[in-house]
């Protein structure tokens, strides 16, 4: 592949990799993994390469960060020059992977700047400078408001169902299988997938694309002083960048918040860092800066992760800042809704009548 051909000529590479299954590389790394472990690669193939490896793992698994460790050793074996020891981020740490990543990144930038000094006249961008948004949001004229339903893009007929082309399946039944008195609400939900072309075995997972409830969408729009019926088009700040695949163009604010922005997720540290730039209230700014600092991570964990506080709930807690968020930054601030995986309890070999 293009990546494999380029690697031989690269001078500096930072690898960021997860481990899946029983110590396996992620799907998008498998071709590269096979290439890297070819027996016929000369031992000095990467002798011109400075590199660093960051692993994202979970120490509750026996093969913790196996891919990062093995990748680090293999590149070293092929003549690469490691700038730092491999970093082993751990989801099980109270502060998450950041506990390892923070000090590692500081050391990495020092090494890189020593090897590749900035050109005269260039300075490191100060952390006080707010970077431009990835997209700009252009509102359309008020008189072109359409009902939101007209904008919903369902999968084209006969398209193979995928994350970008989900199949709209009818719910046939929804029954609770745990006792009413049990603390867990486990359900058996039956979908009609006739005509979808979906094939599966018992034990596979089905990816369900959730959406935010109307009450949460309404609260979000009120907090940010957004008109849910306003229509807009997105334009990338960097020419040639791709637009989000799942958003229709034009789109309403209601559709964006309902189907795209994950306002129910627990926000990450980067959320608080970006939010602090919009703070007009001194107390709110100080708190947001504390939450986004390395020293404030235990405080952030107690406030956000332990009680599983959602993005919407956090926005309630910082009302002065929330109403000052520029709409252009919404897609930088809040991640998109990801499909959720659920176990398939049926087999295609059994046909329910």
UniProtKB/TrEMBL annotation:
User: What's an example of a GO molecular-function annotation for this chain?
Assistant: FMN binding
Has keyword NADP?
yes
What InterPro entries does this protein's entry cite?
CysJ-like_FAD-binding, FAD-bd_FR_type, Flavdoxin-like, Flavodoxin/NO_synth, Flavoprotein-like_sf, NADPH_Cyt_P450_Rdtase_alpha, Riboflavin_synthase-like_b-brl
What residue stretches are annotated with the FAD-binding FR-type domain?
164-326
Task: Indicate the principal place this protein occupies in or around the cell.
Answer: cytoplasm
Record Pfam families: FAD_binding_1 (PF00667), Flavodoxin_1 (PF00258)
Q: Which gene encodes it?
A: Ndor1
Whether Oxidoreductase counts among this entry's keywords is: yes
What GO terms in the biological process aspect are recorded for it? Answer: iron-sulfur cluster assembly
List each copy of the Flavodoxin-like domain by range.
1-109
GO cellular component terms attached to this protein's record: cytosol
What is the name listed in the Swiss-Prot or TrEMBL entry for this protein? Answer: NDOR1 oxidoreductase
Signal peptide location in the record?
Answer: 1-23
Which keywords does this chain's UniProt record carry? Cytoplasm, FAD, Flavoprotein, FMN, NADP, Oxidoreductase, Signal
According to its UniProt record, which cofactors does this protein need?
Answer: FAD; FMN
Location of the protein in the cell: Cytoplasm
SUPFAM superfamilies, alphabetized: Flavoproteins (SSF52218), Riboflavin synthase domain-like (SSF63380)
Q: Which reaction does it catalyse?
A: 2 oxidized [2Fe-2S]-[protein] + NADPH = 2 reduced [2Fe-2S]-[protein] + NADP(+) + H(+)
